[in-house]
Specification:
235 residues; mainly alpha; 9 helices; 0% strand
Length: 235
């Protein structure tokens, strides 16, 4: 596997989170557009790239694992309260660390990172999975920083939370690689199927929620169109 892909994913996520922490107020108005872009990119990546990759293994019963990922994400959102697609619920009591919401985000990041074990150095930048996870994580980390601000989390725990979150998708790829090495068969396709199900759920929820009161928003539609076309022509 290409450890460079895991390291770059960690560094880019961390830097984006630190930037969000510094200029948070300026990002608040644009995060919905970024989420719309990433949702469209994820959906197009799933349909055009990941699903064909998953189903090329005709000898494997892979479809149930896509459904497993889809319904697993529903369970995760009961813990994270939908932060993955931009929902931030301000606390009603004193300042505290949103532990259970954070744990939901961490589990989500770790799970979607498991199939990264299959990325090699020579195809890292052309990997739909790599770009899908990266462009999905960037708006999430911005929303997470906003969540920490809403909960009035101090700087130390905010940075610590950012470090932990940034490392979990790469850690998932590392663990996935170890599990695959210990297995008698290649189980990466099953990991990819689970991540594809997660992506399908996340992307559709984001896109369904982009239309507030079912009113047309030209800027959001433009970002959705750009995100979808980018996944078609870039990868």
């Amino acid at each position: 596997m290409a450890y460079l892909s895991l390291i770059s994913l960690f560094i880019i996520t961390l830097l984006c989170g630190m930037l969000a922490y510094i200029i948070q107020k300026k990002l608040d108005n644009s995060i919905k557009l970024f989420l719309s872009f990433s949702g469209a990119f994820l959906l197009a990546t799933c349909v055009i790239h990941l699903l064909p990759e998953v189903f090329k293994h005709e000898d494997l019963n892979i479809a149930p694992f896509i459904l497993l990922g889809f319904f697993l994400q529903i369970l995760i959102e009961y813990i994270s309260q939908g932060v993955e697609h931009g929902h931030i619920h301000s606390p009603h009591d004193s300042a505290k660390f949103p532990l259970f919401i954070f744990l939901g985000l961490c589990f989500h990041a770790f799970t979607e990172g498991l199939p990264l074990a299959d990325i090699q150095f020579n195809n890292m930048l052309s990997s739909p999975l790599y770009w899908g996870i990266l462009l999905h994580k960037l708006p999430i980390v911005i929303v997470m920083i906003s969540l920490f601000s809403a909960y009035r989390v101090n700087t130390f725990f905010s940075i610590l939370g950012l470090l932990v979150f940034s490392i979990l998708a790469p850690l998932g790829g590392f663990v996935g690689d170890m599990i695959n090495d210990l297995s008698e068969n290649n189980i990466i396709p099953y990991f990819l199927a689970i991540s594809t199900g997660i992506f399908l759920h996340i992307s559709t929820v984001i896109l369904f929620e982009t239309s507030h009161n079912h009113k047309f928003n030209f800027m959001k539609f433009l970002f959705i169109l750009i995100g979808g076309l980018l996944a078609v022509f870039l990868l």
